[in-house]
Every structure is written in C-alpha cells, then in structure tokens.
Amino acid sequence: MNNNRLLNNRSSSNSLFPPPNSAQRVSNNLPAGQRQKVTLKPGHSPLDWAHLNSNTPFHILRGVSQQTPPPQYVRITKDELQTHKTKEDCWTCINGKVFNITPYIDFHPGGVNEIMKCAGRDGTALFNKYHSWVNADRMLEKCLIGMLVNN
Ligand code: HEM
C-alpha cells in the first residue's frame, strides 16, 4: 500500500484517530472535557512530591517510629485502619497495602476532598475507578506502613 492510498483511506473513511473507545482516549470515568484537576498549593506539584520522597527518611513518611519493623512484617487490621481517617492522621489501603497518606494529601492532583474519600478504609476500588494507570506503589513507596489483614 503506498502513502497516497493510506492518506486517501484515512480521509475518505472519515475516521477518528484514536478511535472513540480507544484506551488512549479514556483518561477517567468523567464525561469528555470534564477533568477534575485542582489548583495545588505552591510547592505541592508532582515534582515537589518526588523531591520530598527522595529527601525524607522512610520512617517520617510512614509516620512511625524508627524502630518499627519493615512493612512486610507489619500487619494492620481493618479496625486499626479505620482509626486513621483524619487529614492529620490518614491511612488508606490500596491493593492490600496500607499507606500513610497524611503527607501526600495536599499533593494529590485530584484534590483533598477526593483523596479523603479513601481515608481510613480500603481505597482500591475508588483509586482504580479514577486512575487505574497511576502507580501507587511507586508514588507512595516510602509511605508504606504494612499489610492489611483480617480482624
Ligand atoms: C492514595 C491514593 C491516591 C493517589 C496516590 C492518587 C494519585 C493521583 C495522581 C498521581 C493523579 C494525577 C493523574 C494524572 O494526571 O494522570 C490523580 C488525579 C486524580 N485523582 Fe487521585 N489518587 C489517589 C486517590 C484518589 C481517590 C480516592 C480519588 C477519588 C475518590 C481520586 C480522584 C482523582 C481525580 C478525580 C483526579 C483527577 C483526574 C484527572 O485529571 O483526570 N484519587 N490522583
């Protein structure tokens, strides 16, 4: 197929690229054009979060004492998770891992109100509903406290 035919095919079929249901078009579950980006406070860009992450000791971002065992040895029950649901002390669980999101709240590009919906509870479903492509494990690497277990 030569280039002319390719070009003609595209214009004559009047098709959209990417196609309407392509994954490249689907950025969230909101109607097209209604992104819920918020204005973040100065010093709270994604780059600022990355910087804070690389320069803050692990136990500070986890919000635990320095003696706390590594996350794979820390078991957190649902009851315990539920007690950390304020902006000043906020935990959530994503895919079985419990994170201290307190330091991240003001950096959340979707806003404080949205992220607080997963405070003190399993936020996996909400998280995936809005942005399954976001890598929470990587972004919250140093906020990982432990693993969620049955009560
Ligand atoms: C620990 C939990 C969460 C993390 C690490 C996180 C992270 C992020 C990141 C990195 C973005 C920017 C995505 C992009 O620009 O492509 C974002 C946007 C957003 N987040 Fe979250 N999020 C979390 C929880 C939530 C929850 C629970 C909700 C809703 C209840 C939510 C709603 C949103 C919305 C509406 C946006 C804007 C989406 C857009 O621009 O299209 N997030 N979040």
From TrEMBL:
Query: Is Electron transport one of the keywords UniProt gives this record?
Result: no
Q: Which stretches does UniProt call biased (Low complexity)?
A: 1-16
Q: Where is this region: Disordered?
A: 1-28
Under which name does UniProt file this protein?
Answer: Cytochrome b5 heme-binding domain-containing protein
Q: Which residues form the Cytochrome b5 heme-binding domain?
A: 73-149
Q: Which organism is it from?
A: Debaryomyces fabryi
GO CC field: cytoplasm
What's this protein's family per the entry?
A: Belongs to the cytochrome b5 family.
Concerning Gene3D superfamilies, the annotation shows: Cytochrome b5-like heme/steroid binding domain
Fetch the InterPro entries from UniProt. Answer: Cyt_B5-like_heme/steroid-bd, Cyt_B5-like_heme/steroid_sf, Cyt_B5_heme-BS, Cytochrome_b5/Flavoprotein_Rdt
- SUPFAM superfamilies registered for this protein in UniProt: Cytochrome b5-like heme/steroid binding domain
GO molecular function, a single term: cytochrome-b5 reductase activity, acting on NAD(P)H
Alphabetically list the UniProt keywords.
Heme, Iron, Metal-binding
